[in-house]
Amino acid sequence: MTAVGPFAARVVKQEWAERVVCPMHDAIPVSARAQYLRDNPASYLQVMRSEQDLPDATLAQIGATNARALQALLDDGAYGAELPPAMFVYRVRRGTEEHAGIVAEVALSAFVDGQVLGHEAVHEARVEALTHHFAAVPVRSELVALMHRSDPDITAVLQRTMADPPLLHLRDATGVEQAVWQLAPSDVTLVAERLGSARHYVADGHHRVAASVRQWRAGGEPDGAAVLCVLYPEGQMHLLAFHRRVAGPIGVDRTLAALPAVCEVEATAQANRERGRFDMYLAGYWSRLTPIDAADRLGADGLDVTRLDDLILKPLLGVTRGDARVEYVSELADLDEATARCDADGGALFRLVAPSLDQLVDVAERGEVMPPKSTYFEPKPRAGIFLRFDPR
């Protein structure tokens, strides 16, 4: 039996799509979720609320609230009738960038036997909350994003499918354009064969996977259990960096005096684009830091975020993982805001280059995990397009 297969789906109706489809719950900052729901009351976000959104409610009460929100969408007719088992192409377009993958179900056993590998650690409290959510809301719409090595036959499937008019086309409340096509039956067979035997890597959704595995094991590991996923060829995904801002004040003179012992330091005005070095903004100017220890390090030890921790953050600034002084800044964010905060409080900003896909694969194959906020993937799939009902 192949690990990748079709699933019976209800798809959001075209006339509801722009109101319902939304970013994943954890992709919207806690501070912005309440306003997002006020602006978009039909959003699928109302089905994914957590204890952060309803702090005075128990997990059971939150689950019941989410289940009622789902039922309201169904009662209002936001979704079409259930389709026979199928696979779909899902394309996300932001500006000139376009990313397409195949939506299918992936056997839960594949996440346990090593066919699908992760690269991030998970937090117990979040897994526990998601396990309660899955038990209360018997529908999965939140796609787990997987990445696989490029396959020309899969690329051909994507191209010929997208040559036809889409089943669904929308621009969600955040302005991201999306489209969905249904695969031809012959292509479903091909995809199941090729991707069903391929190695996959979790790009987004480690906590959803962990919660699904926990629920599966608690239920006696029934046959046929699966996770709803979007499977991207590696060429359809981008790894992006998280920069580190350390809130001040920090000892500027002491830090600058200590740096030459571990790094070559040179003034710079241009952003670094090369792995193995990083930029630092301190005391009003940028410097390029190149570690003196250039020895190759493998796996998670070879990542730039690890070298930054080991050479500078821990020994020179006294910063350890989980330190409240550290702010993670997206590569897509405006760094002028972060540097202005450094100017105001005497802090420092470290600008990093994202790890490569080969580095991520190496970490996963070694059974290691990356440090928190080492990287993130684009695209971020949306929720609310597909409903896959859990077998009960």
Describe, in plain words, how this protein is organized in 3D:
This protein is α+β, with helices and mostly antiparallel strands and 392 residues long. The protein has a domain at 240-376: Conserved hypothetical protein from pyrococcus furiosus pfu- 392566-001, domain 2 (2-Layer Sandwich), CATH 3.30.1760. The chain has twelve helices and 21 strands. It has helices spanning 14-20, 30-39, 59-75, 108-113, 124-136, 152-162, 185-196, 206-218, 252-258, 304-313, 335-345, 357-365, and strands at 4-5, 10-11, 22-23, 88-94, 97-107, 116-117, 139-140, 144-148, 168-171, 177-182, 200-204, 226-233, 238-246, 263-267, 278-282, 285-291, 326-330, 348-351, 375-378, 382-383, 386-389. Helix 3 (59-75) packs across helix 5 and helix 5 crosses helix 8 (206-218). The radius of gyration is 22 Å and the shape is globular. The mean pLDDT is 93.
